[in-house]
Amino acid sequence: MSRKVNIDLHVNSKINGYYVSGKNNSQLVCNQLNAFAFNRYENLPIGGVKFNWITRSIDIDWSTFDSNFQILNHIYNEKHLSNKGLLVNNLRNYDRHIRKLDDYLPLNRFLPETYLLDNITDRINFKKAFENNSIWICKPVGLSCGREIFIFRDENQLENILNEYHKNLSSYSTIYYNRLVQKYIEKPLLINKHKFDIRTYFLCICLSNDILCFACQTGYLRLSMYEYDLDNFNKFIHLTNQSIQRKNQDFSSMNNHTGMTMEEFNEYFNEFIQPDMSHINKDWVINELPERITKILNQVAYSIRNKLVIREGCFGFYGVDILIDDKLNCWLLEINSGPTLDMTNTALEKVIPMCLSAAINIVIETLEKYRSSGVIFPLAESNLLKYLPLSNNFDQTHHIPTFTSFNNHLINLTPGVFTSIHRYRRPLFSSNPHKYVDKALIQKTRSKLSREHLSHQLTKLIQINNKS
């Protein structure tokens, strides 16, 4: 039996297996995948397995991912979502293109006033905008879990703290390297005098032609441990991140007070907040808030669709943090590529497994339908994840990447297989395309496939020329 045939047999025999690597409550992921009757593999077999959940994207050997049958929980350059600086730039660029549309949501209506400190123009504009005693928050663009975030009122205070952090960086970088500042939302909506934000989710699924995006319609609240006070910049007052809160010595006795489900929030809202807002209907949290957050995520989806590298079988399950102010405006704080699955209180125990299960169900159903027939819709009804339709209002330029791995310690997703060839498939919708997309999008898809064919022919021509 030839090596190729032997490998093919291994691939076919392992197609319904799964592999989970890393921490972040990996057992919860295993519990969800066990429901699909997949076999779990502690070590990857020859040819790999169908479903791969790798906690850290930096551990992935992208050159070994097989998009013909594998599923992977990361998108190659998802930093366009999770990196705060890149996300701001993407939203700004999209904002400049679509501001004349009827359903346009102005950027300053959902993104706090933001300046990238390592951009000289932004830094100058920040100096002009800054007023003494105004409150700002400084964040590193590429870190999560609340690391190196601080609040300041004074420019000298900003410089001093950045100088302290800069001691650990390379000498060639400035103190402003990979930092941004945002105008602090000074009047957030409070629950029992405590600040909170909402953690919800954003799902992206890569097909060979495009990316499908879904907005979660629920989530949970993350509350600070102590009462809100603008005169005290204690991080346990202003940062609601569970990774920060759990470092407090009082967390074990207060952990159930740092989380709340949306249903519990709705009850609190109806009893204590809505009576003082006669223009707001009861059950605003359940009936109107999800739609507002979805509109924000819809704009996020449009802004990054032309940035993410499309490789069939990749998906991203992202954590989205939303702050509500005392006027009920919703503000996008950040998007996290590795949202915590640790359940530190009863609210998280109710919400996280439910949302993760819904996301995995949609990912597997979408890719199985697409790979078997090319037709995705209709998907099984989901009350938790809302599909964000494609739009033709923005130029979506897809590019096919070349993946090269230099680190021998990366996870080889298809052991025993030397190359993983990406197969370009049929258009996104085939049975009744007019029901979902218009002719312009179909023509764009056909043009894209023609460009891929020409690119392939050009590559062959160059190879022949080099040999001669």
Automatic annotation (TrEMBL):
Q: Which InterPro entries match?
A: TTL/TTLL_fam, TTLL10
> What's the domain of life for this entry?
Eukaryota
Organism the protein comes from: Adineta steineri
Q: Name one matching Pfam family.
A: TTL
Q: Which GO terms describe its molecular function?
A: protein-glycine ligase activity, elongating
This protein's name: Tubulin-tyrosine ligase family protein
